[in-house]
Amino acid sequence: MYELTDECSMEHSTQAMKSALIELILDQGYDQVTLSDIVRTAGTHPDTFREHFADKDELLERVTNDFLNGLGHVLIRPYVRSRTLHANQLAAEALRIFRYIYEHRPVFQALLAAPANLHQRLYSRIRSHQSTTVRLLSGRPEEIDDDLLISYTITTALGLVMEWTRQGFKATAVDMVRQLNELVGTRLSNPACRP
């Protein structure tokens, strides 16, 4: 019983420090955040911080990994039984990404403001998921390479996510997927865009 309480307390402290870092990055920028700021905002002690993290960079890395792992979990969940993705299901895939980012807006915005290389890491995580967990089947013009279609869709979606973030998440996740579908669908079906 004592160990469980201790473990819960450690998890609570870790989560409090992660939340403090996110809040502080949004308030003052990553470079201005100090260890003192983190422990004061988290309501912990510097020794507690040092038990968990070497420095704020390690804490940032944990927050980034937690965010990316959460996204990975959301992306993998629908493919537990089937590893097949039809081209017309890319919208559902994109919707999961938009919803996850919307639900985790403060974390996403803080990571964008920090030196976490989030854009590239997001692309890599989503791309890795696509290439290792699903096969793209029908629903796209035959002359379009599956890998290029997935890469194009991910890059377009991430561009929209960045603009959506810049605009303060004014549109819904569903509206953003509609925009993505229009952009990708228009580009793929436009004869002027084909050789």
TrEMBL record:
PROSITE patterns: HTH_TETR_2 (PS50977). Gene3D superfamilies: Tetracycline Repressor, domain 2. SUPFAM superfamilies: Homeodomain-like. Residues 34-53 bind DNA. Pfam families: TetR_C_8, TetR_N. The keyword Phosphoprotein does not apply. InterPro entries: Homeodomain-like_sf, HTH-type_Tx_Regulator, HTH_TetR, TetR_C_Firmicutes. Keywords: DNA-binding. Coiled coil: none annotated. Residues 11-71 form the HTH tetR-type domain. This is TetR family transcriptional regulator. It comes from Paenibacillus campinasensis.
